[in-house]
Write a structure and sequence with these properties.
251 residues; mainly beta; Trna Endonuclease, Chain: A, domain 1; six-stranded antiparallel β-sheet; six-stranded mixed β-sheet; 3 helices; 15% helix
């Protein structure tokens, strides 16, 4: 996905009112930009770190500039624009990058489904079986927290955790996906890794143990778990590489 507008750079000052971020420009001026990310953005920015933003050129917007990328405390780059993941995964499915999700008849987004009145991010309609795909933006890079590997994979540097805060909504989505498997469909939780330092993904048991337990249960019950990492530069962002999903245990 090519960025629609050229990215400009500034320096992080502060975040407030959930949607607002102040940045310092090269000329010393302070500019308030809009951030589409309502989450914690934990470990996604650093004081006076580089940020990348764009000008919508829309005079009707109170804050016409939007935040796109941030320099992280580890020196990597994260895409914190949470409007991107669904589009990136859709694009990667349609262009054949995600080999595991091919052979569908049609693709729809934001379709109502489930017992808990949810919307599935991507619904792939098949001739005999549908695929329900729930996309999760993954940008939290943390130390391994004395985690040990289990049979599903090894824990190394570059572990990305999800979620970055307690999320009842994310747990609800796992329950919905398990129900779709019970009904005979395929169901997929898709971690869209928008952080250049993340090499594998794990549930954030230290933040939301309920989600971690549900993710393990979902895997056992047939929900497929995929994670793909994006390539990020100042002109485009695109999903390219599959990365492991691991379920470590505490030491």
């Amino acid at each position: 996905m090519k960025f629609e507008f050229p990215l400009q750079t500034g320096r992080w000052v502060k975040r407030y009112k959930r949607f607002m971020v102040d940045v310092t420009l090269d000329n010393g001026d302070t500019l308030t930009v809009h951030s589409a990310n309502t989450g914690s953005m934990k470990n996604c920015y650093v004081d006076n770190g580089t940020v990348w933003f764009w000008d919508s050129q829309n005079p009707k917007r109170k804050y016409p500039h939007s935040l796109e990328l941030t320099e992280t405390p580890s020196g990597h780059v994260a895409c914190i624009n949470t409007s991107r993941p669904n589009y990136l995964v859709t694009e990667a499915i349609e262009n054949g990058t995600v080999k595991e999700l091919q052979g569908y008849v049609s693709l729809k987004t934001e379709v109502r489904y489930g017992d808990e009145k949810s919307r599935i991010d991507i619904l792939l309609k098949g001739e005999s079986q549908d695929i329900y795909v729930e996309v999760k933006n993954t940008t939290l890079l943390e130390p391994t927290l004395n985690l040990l590997p289990n049979e599903l994979g090894s824990v190394e540097e570059g572990v990305g955790f999800f979620p970055d805060s307690v999320s009842d909504r994310a747990s609800k989505h796992l329950r919905e996906l398990m129900r779709m498997v019970e009904l005979g469909h395929r169901a997929v939780i898709f971690f869209c890794v928008n952080h250049t330092g993340i090499k594998q993904v794990a549930p954030a048991d230290h933040i939301d143990p309920t989600y971690g337990a549900l993710l393990r249960e979902a895997a056992q019950k047939g929900v497929e778990i995929l994670a793909y990492r994006s390539h990020i530069d100042d002109e485009e962002i695109v999903l390219k590489d599959r990365v492991p999903v691991v379920f470590p245990t505490a030491s």
